[in-house]
Each structure stands twice: as structure tokens, then as C-alpha cells.
Amino acid sequence: MKSNREPNDPLARWTDQTLRQLPGRRAPGTLLPQVMAAIARQRALPWYQQPWFRWPRHFQMLAFALSLGLVAGLAWLVIPHGDIATLAAAKQAALQSEMIKPVVSTVSTTSDFLGTLGHAGRLLVGTLPNWTAAALLGGLAFLWCSTLGLGTAAWRLASPQR
User: Fold this and answer.
1) What predicted TM-score, i.e. pTM, was given to this entire model?
2) CA angle 105–110–115, rounded 5-degree value
3) What is the spatial distance between Cα 73 and Cα 76, in angstroms, rounded to a whole number?
4) Going by C-beta distance under 8 Å and a sequence separation of 6 or more, which residues neighbour residue 75?
5) What distance in Å separates the CA atoms of residue 83 and residue 91, rounded to the nearest whole number?
6) How far apart are CA 47 and CA 27, in angstroms?
7) What share of the chain in percent tops pLDDT 90?
8) Is position 33 within any domain?
9) Which tens digits make up the pLDDT trace of 87-137?
């Protein structure tokens, strides 16, 4: 091992010489079986108790898609959409059509409820400055993604050691 000190440093030379004269230490004979048993216990855990990077690929993709959907949904609330009057006129025109009237009237109640929730969310987020909304959106995305790791850690701490 090369020292970062100057070659003329007597303390460095003495320390290097003394440490090189020490005999190598051997690991106890019981260490290897203990390590192998710990590895076997780790591999025997169900997938949801293992770190996220060891999850099956399809569950990783599902968790990523859910996280991405959450971020996209929150971004949809932040980004302003078309004029409400234009949307109301389009809805009125669809209601006037005799062919679509039964379908629109059935969907109307659900869409009104969801639209009201969306507008309330947009109004709430729209009153915030852009940087605050972006910081909240990023913070929520971070919290959502970190729950996977924190949940795994909490499960390991709460589960009895085998």
C-alpha cells in the first residue's frame, strides 16, 4: 500500500515497517457458517420483505408505474386546463344530442363530482407560487417512493429475528 506521506517521514516509515511485521489474523472457524446462514435467511424471506432492488421485476415496474401515475396526477392538478366556459358549452352541446343524451346523463353525475374535486384541487394548488407547487409535488413524489424502503425497514425491525 502506498502512503500519501513523503518518503522521508520517519513516523510513516516506522509505522509501515511495524504493521508489516505483524502476523496476519485468521478468521474464526465459526464465522463462515454464520455468514452462510445469514445469507440463507436473507434469501428465504418473501419478496416484499427484501430490499426494493431485489423485488421481482414486474412488482418493481408496478410500483414505478404507480409512483409515476401519482406524479402525473398531481401535475395534472397543477397545470391549468382549458377554459371552464368552453368545457361547459361542449357539455351542453353533447346533452342536446338525442343519441348521446342517455349516456351523458349517466356519466354526468360521476364526471361532475370528479370535475368538482379536480377544480377544487386546481384552485387550491393554483393559489400557491409555482416554486411552492413544484416543491410540494416533488416532496410528495419523494415520500411516495421512499415508503417502499421505509416500509421494508420497518418490517425488518418489527419482525422477530430468526
Assistant:
1) 0.33
2) 110
3) 5
4) 137
5) 13
6) 32
7) 7
8) no
9) 666 666 666 665 555 555 555 666 677 777 777 777 776 777 777 877 888
